[in-house]
Amino acid sequence: MTSNQFDNFEIPPFVKVIFKNIKKIAIGLAVLVVVWSGFFQVQPEEVGVITRFGEYKRMEQPGLNFKIPFAEKIIKVPVERQQKQEFGFRTVASDVRSEYTKRGTTDESLMLTGDLNLADVEWVVQYRISDPYYFLFRVRNPESTLRDISEASMRQIVGDRTVNEVITVGRTEVANSVQELIQNLCDEYSLGIRVEQVVLQDVNPPDPVKAAFNAVNQAQQQRETLINEAKSEYNRIIPRARGEARETINNAEGYATARINNAEGEASRFAMLYQEYMNAPEVTKRRIYLETLQRILPEMGDKVITDQDGNNVLPLLQMSMDQKSIAE
Prior knowledge:
Layout: H1 3-8, H2 13-20, H3 22-37, E1 39-42, E2 47-52, E3 55-60, E4 63-66, E5 72-77, E6 83-87, E7 90-93, E8 99-101, H4 106-109, E9 110-112, E10 118-129, H5 132-137, H6 142-159, H7 163-167, H8 171-189, E11 193-204, H9 210-279, H10 281-296, E12 304-305, E13 314-315, H11 323-327
Antiparallel strand pairs: 1-4, 2-3, 2-5, 6-10, 7-8, 9-10, 10-11, 12-13
């Protein structure tokens, strides 16, 4: 523009107003920025811990909150989120098919058991922050402290048990004992952490001795199988033999009882018969004679009658008489 054009240029009125009140506008914008910076949002799974010049002041619940700008600082602590620490492995990618790696984790997972064997133990500690104040201000690096506590607790519990207990039957007991020990130490150190679960992932012998360990384990399983089969055969045969023995004893006792009862009956019958004989000898003798013939003659085949010297042998015919004829 030429000098005449600059001379004829007129500044708009609102610009004049802005330039006239620019100091007030700047102060208002600064105040607005400062006030706006004091508002903050706390998510539903968090609490906000407010510190003023590094000193703890209060906790803010989820929602929109306000703090003094520049003087107060907000630290958001995820108290409702379940967190975890992995030992002996690391999760590289968590998806439908998670990926894991053991690189750099051998030292923390290799442990000595109570029977002086080595075991490669992998486990996970799942926890929540129960007290944000303790978590932030009582212990320096609480997550690192929790990791050291977890590793020391696992080594102590594994060191009190045999390698077979840790690998097979004692896994649940080991996990529960480690969880209890970790929680006790967290409470003692005021970490503000609640341990929710300890999960044993894989427990294996070290790679150099894995083949030998598997062979021993297989032999022990075969031994247990043979013992169980022998017990099954024992339980099948022994009760049957005992039953048969009891049956034989019962039969013998029954036979003995029957024989004794029969003998006692015969003895009583003989005593009664003897009493009758003493009362009427001839009548009783004849009746016994006839009863004997009645019992014996039907069982004989060909029958003959002889005299005392064996002479005059005569056939005895029609001897199959009924009891009534003999009695007559």
